[in-house]
Amino acid sequence: MPEPLLTRYLGQPGREEIDAYLATGGYRALARALRERTPDEIVAMVEASGLRGRGGAGFPTGRKWKLTPKRDGETRYLVVNADEGEPGTFKDRTLIEGDPHQIIEGMVITAYANQVHQAYIYLRGEFFLGHRRLSRALAEAYARGYVGRNILGSGFDLEIVIHRGAGAYICGEETALLESLEGRRGFPRLKPPYYPAVRGLYDRPTVLNNAETMAHIPHIVALGPEAYKSYGPPILYSVSGHVTRPGVKELPIGTPLREIIFEHAGGPRAGRSVKAVFPGGSSSAILTAEHLDTPADFESLQKLGSMLGSSAIIVLDDTTCIPAVIRRTVEFYRDESCGKCTPCREGTVWLSQILDRILCGRGRREDLDLLDSIARNMTGTCFCPLGESVPPSLRASLRYFRDEYAHHIEAGACDVAGGPHR
Amino acid sequence: MARVLSQAVLAEIERARARYPRPQSAVLPALHAAQEEVGYLSPEALDDVAEALGLPVTEVASVATFYSMFFTEPVGRHKIRVCTNLSCYLNGCEEILDHLCRTLGVRPGETTADGRVLVEVAECLAACEEAPVLLADEDRHGHMTPAKVDALLRALDREPSATSPTGPAGDA
């Protein structure tokens, strides 16, 4: 097992301060990048590293940077998405609170590679501690010359602004985030034409990356792509739910679910067993105990009709009522739907009403097909990924746990959670 | 001429405005600053923000009503937000929320009659490793139990207000 790269110093007292970061080689990758590498060389290194965006979509970071047109005289922006809100995901918050300079250094290198001079980091409004730590770290970085004018005497300038959100899950979607950053309601934009790389913030080419993605960049530059890859390449899994040692686990990408859950997260509580798993946040299709030997990587999970997403592994043990869990996720998307498109706005309401009916013992036999039919009709018809996040886990649960739904309908009661649902 | 916002907050809004190429981008920071001073986004506060940024007040109000952290009506000086999303749900958040609501005599979304505490449900607070989790004003509290809720409420009793600089009830 390789040593952790991104999380190595997390939890050390005072780690959020610049002297602690510098003492372990912090900002050296930036200094080398500015002194020894051209912007294009950095882009090539990141592409060679194989790094894929850590926000959920997994788009190759180097390729994304190449897609951003670099025309002389045209303003470009860097926007970092730290609006972490996908249920079960807490890696970005952990990095921001625990090692904020790592993200700032990644941002400066990224800005240099893309020849950007203005960057924004969109921080989730509820991250009060993260805001305090990141603000302080940014002020330190400015004071020591790692951000601002003529960084380390290189002639390269970069301004970084922290932009606080105000409570809206939808703003984690990249085009809604840009709307919010422009001071409007967080309604997503239509793609095409609004691909952020070409028409992003203020209609300008915009490099838009996730916060964890930024934390990988200094290591890729410091080690070189090959040595970086020998660390796994690393990825941060957020493991929570019914496990005894939940937390952020930095592991080689493709570590099997079973190993992550049992060896690294302590497994379920004594006497309990794993019943189901969301491998990539609540937007990913739910899996069962039979799938635990699957490597947690993009391709393997996709083959199962699920996804790695933000690599948030939520573990459900055998005391869990699956229809009740699915209702909770549907309610979440219902409440967070921005209301712009009909399938999402109406579909989530209908689904939660039917699930309510089933869970309070008034379900009808035809409800299962009705749920599946609504979910099918939402698939591919929603304006943005929020609505598209609802069908996968619902439909997978109908496939893997159909008997449990049927039992609620026929018996009017839950055998698992022991008692009626609200 | 500003109606409710202090010179200090107006200056803060001015600084926020300078951080973006377009003034409208400063709406969220301006609304955060205004709400922190007034306690909620009153019509007067929205007017002041609109005037400071040179925007129609309807535009500012439209933004204010979209985001769950902004309040356009008076709410409790302390805000307790209980996460009810998956990992917290799996780890007993309903018991925490019930206990909190019963103790304070409110339902989720309501403020206590004395105007002291607002209880809200929150979506995933991105701290699932500490489930069940809540935010009390700006502080996150993890691994919550009913006993820890009681201790938290006692601590709130001791300090008149953690977030509102206007102090105890009635003087805002």
Structural commentary:
The complex is a heterodimer of chains A (422) and B (172). Chain A contains 18 helices and 9 strands. Chain A is an alpha/beta fold and 422 residues long. Chain A has 3 domains: 18-229, 3-Layer(aba) Sandwich (Rossmann fold); 238-317, Ubiquitin-like (UB roll), CATH 3.10.20.600; 322-411, NADH-ubiquinone oxidoreductase 51kDa subunit, iron-sulphur binding domain (de novo design (two linked rop proteins), Up-down Bundle), CATH 1.20.1440. The radius of gyration of chain A is 22 Å and the shape is globular. Chain B is of the alpha+beta class and 172 residues long. Chain B has 2 domains: 7-66, Orthogonal Bundle (Arc Repressor Mutant, subunit A); 78-158, 3-Layer(aba) Sandwich (Glutaredoxin). The chains are: A alpha/beta (422), B alpha+beta (172).
Name a few traits of the molecule.
heterodimer, A: 422 residues, alpha/beta, Rossmann fold, Ubiquitin-like (UB roll), de novo design (two linked rop proteins), 3 domains, five-stranded mixed sheet, four-stranded parallel sheet, 9 strands, globular, B: 172 residues, alpha+beta, Arc Repressor Mutant, subunit A, Glutaredoxin, 2 domains, four-stranded mixed sheet, 7 helices, 4 strands, 10% strand, disordered C terminus
Tell me the strand order in the biggest sheet of chain B: 2-1-3-4
Major beta sheet summary of chain B: 4 strands, mixed
CATH architecture tag of the largest domain in chain A: 3-Layer(aba) Sandwich
Mean pLDDT across every amino acid position of chain A = 96
Low-confidence residue ranges of chain B? 162-172
Topology-level CATH name of the largest domain in chain A = Rossmann fold
Strand order of the largest sheet of chain A: 6-5-9-7-8
- Categorize the overall geometry of chain B: elongated
CATH superfamily of the largest domain in chain A: NADH-ubiquinone oxidoreductase 51kDa subunit
- SSE string of chain A, helix = H, strand = E? HHHHEHHEHEHEHHEEHEEHEHHHHHH
Given this structure, which CATH class of the largest domain in chain A is correct?
Alpha Beta
| Main beta-sheet strand count, sense and barrel state of chain A | 5 strands, mixed
| Low-confidence regions of chain A | none
Structural category of chain A is alpha/beta
Q: Mean pLDDT score of chain B, rounded?
A: 92
CATH architecture of the largest domain in chain B: 3-Layer(aba) Sandwich
